[in-house]
Amino acid sequence: MSNTINLSRRHLMMGAGAVAMALSAGAASAQEGGAGSGNGLSGKSVLITGTSSGFGRLGAEHYARLGAKVFATMRDMPRPEAEELKTLAEAEDLDITVIEIDVTSDEQVEAGVAQALEATGGKLDVLINNAGIAMSAPVEVMDMEATRRMFDTNVFGPQRMIRAVLPAMRKAGKGQVFNVTSQLGRVIIPGLGQYSPTKFALEALSEQLAYEVVAKGIDITIIQPGGYPTEIWENGARYSAQLKARTPEALLEGYPQLTAGMGERGGGGGDTDPMDVPRAIAEIMMMSAGTRPLRRPVHPRAKPQVPINEVSAQQQLAMLGGSGYGPMVKAVLDR
Length: 335
Known about the structure:
The chain is globular, with a radius of gyration of 20 Å. The protein has helices at 9-14, 16-23, 54-65, 80-92, 106-119, 144-172, 195-213, 232-245, 249-253, 256-259, 276-285, 306-320, 326-333, and strands spanning 45-48, 69-74, 96-100, 126-129, 175-180, 218-225, 295-298. The chain is 47% helix and 11% strand. The longest helix has 29 residues, at 144-172.
């Protein structure tokens, strides 16, 4: 990327979308997804984390309207968002069960997944690891409390969920896991603390897992959204404000450009449609097993990670394609 961008605090708080669009000005517009109405997901059981808002909430409704049996999970129940989703499901006769899961809790993950498996007779077709948090701060300002919170939610949370669902999927000889990362799992904006590190980690975890389970009939897909107007950045501003309040002033003054706006509410995503992400996921769910892509960038305009994805795949094949790992790698990447 040769474009020179003068990053303001507003850009940093807006997240991936605003800056990525500037970096990729003039990129062709292409809508993601394409799953329409009907019963294209009839018979599928789908468990989603982080359904109180954003991609998770929209997805829970969308997949259920397409005929799926949906287990919509969220933390801190009871809460209004859970009751609203239950009311909607009853009004529209949608097969949605709301379950409490805080992905940072071993106990809640185990209990919540067990509840879903009991309801399906031990079958779970799809896991969507959507829950995640953001926070704004330079890396040095991110104390260990903030760092642990980011990794526990964005990396260890998906790992807990994956370990809870894989035994049933392996037994069935089929399954699909979606891990929602970000453009910022491939490119980096200074000042967003541990957000990119956690998303980079989830990218690597997902790709390694894809190689390890492909022979077991399980597909792994990484969803890489760009900037969308969801609550993640509003919630992130709250976390950032808490971090700023406990950070020594001298440390904040060490990075004045990157700390001045910590805790300010951002408006990332502009006029993009968050439904792009559920539509893309539904489209991939409907694909035949063994044909689903490892990665799917999702944004109507900016996709700066695409060339990185392509080079990464080429180098993986060049490094391992002729080795004993070759069949695993080729089965995932040669699609």
